[in-house]
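task queued by scheduler; priority normal; single chain, no ligands, no partner chains; default sampling; output format set to structure tokens
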Amino acid sequence: MSESARPVVSESGVRPVEALIVVDVQSAFFEGEEAAPHAAAVQERLEDLVDRARAAGALIVHLQNDGAPGMSDETGTKGWELHLPVAPGPREVVIRKTEDDGFHDTPLGGLLTESGVRSLVVCGVMSEMCVLATARSALERKYRVVLPHDAHGTYDVPPAPGETEGVPAAMASRVAEWALGDEVEIVAYAKDVPFEGASGPA
């Protein structure tokens, strides 16, 4: 597949989206010395997405990973806590998960169906893990998926045994986008993603 065939959408071509899926934006990945590279910049874009989704009446889902004992996001620890404020209500919910895929053994799919959602934005961390898995699962379920290039992130990938160089976080994030194929809509800037209310019950 050629680079020109990739679904990179200009700001003039982005259609409104009905739901925002915020993946694993938890304190372990956004605070302190262990924060992911560029976490502050990603957070700023996530806050803007959440604010605009709320204003438009779009559905907002905060996915929260229940990390295993000893992990930085271990359930119940400081690192596990959501980093962005949540405004709980019928249009903003928290869904906990234990797998990379936010649809796996969670009520996410049912909630999207009940809310009449057919299009969604996926953002958050980590690009090549939970963001990728959740976006791919949404595509498999025939949702229209928008992925803002500047609103997801990850860590640098260390060198493999015998290698002298690792993979910078920004490159790992770009590879994750590429791995989703030609059905995902990649938008360069999160600020250019518009929102609208879903058709289902509030």
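post-processing summary
- The mean pLDDT is 92.
- The CA atoms of residues 89 and 140 lie 28 Å apart.
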